[in-house]
Amino acid sequence: MTPNPQVETVASGADRAKLAGALVLVVAAVAAFYLLGAQSLWVRVAALLVLLAAAVATFFTAEAGKRLIAFGRDAVREVKKVVWPTRKEAMQMTGYVFAFVLVMALFLWLTDKTLEWVLYDLVLGWK
């Protein structure tokens, strides 16, 4: 029984061109926002959003974008499989955590004070 080998896809020239185009669109969006400085804010924001939307659309047509969408779908499918605790179980576990933190805080405080007493009062004689 051999495990399935990981298959890597080699990026084609078209995919690289799509990714480069998306990057160029992002840079163009930022540049357009600042180059349109004399225009109204609404025009600048509209140019930025339109170019960013074009960049996102270009990215999602490339293989990397398609893999990202597939990953998101798989993640949603896995989250749907999770058995979430009931409110009562969640409250009980939260109470256990608070109780444990309180006990540990008291233990560490007592340990600190005990070591302080031993070192400063008994060993060094400082009072």
From TrEMBL:
Q: What's a GO biological-process term for it?
A: protein secretion
Show which residues constitute the signal peptide: none
Its keywords, alphabetically, are:
Cell membrane, Membrane, Protein transport, Translocation, Transmembrane, Transmembrane helix, Transport
Classification via Gene3D superfamilies: Preprotein translocase secy subunit
Report the subcellular localization. Membrane
Transmembrane ranges, per UniProt, are 19-36, 42-62, 90-110
Q: Which GO terms describe its cellular component?
A: plasma membrane
Q: What's a Gene Ontology MF term here?
A: protein transmembrane transporter activity
Task: Give yes or no: UniProt keyword Mitochondrion.
Answer: no
What this protein is reported to do is described as:
Essential subunit of the Sec protein translocation channel SecYEG. Clamps together the 2 halves of SecY. May contact the channel plug during translocation.
Q: Which family, according to the similarity comment?
A: Belongs to the SecE/SEC61-gamma family.
Which NCBIfam families does UniProt cross-reference here? PRK05740.1-1, secE_bact
Q: How does it assemble?
A: Component of the Sec protein translocase complex. Heterotrimer consisting of SecY, SecE and SecG subunits. The heterotrimers can form oligomers, although 1 heterotrimer is thought to be able to translocate proteins. Interacts with the ribosome. Interacts with SecDF, and other proteins may be involved. Interacts with SecA.
Put simply, this protein is called Protein translocase subunit SecE
Source organism (scientific name): Azohydromonas caseinilytica
Q: Which gene encodes it?
A: secE
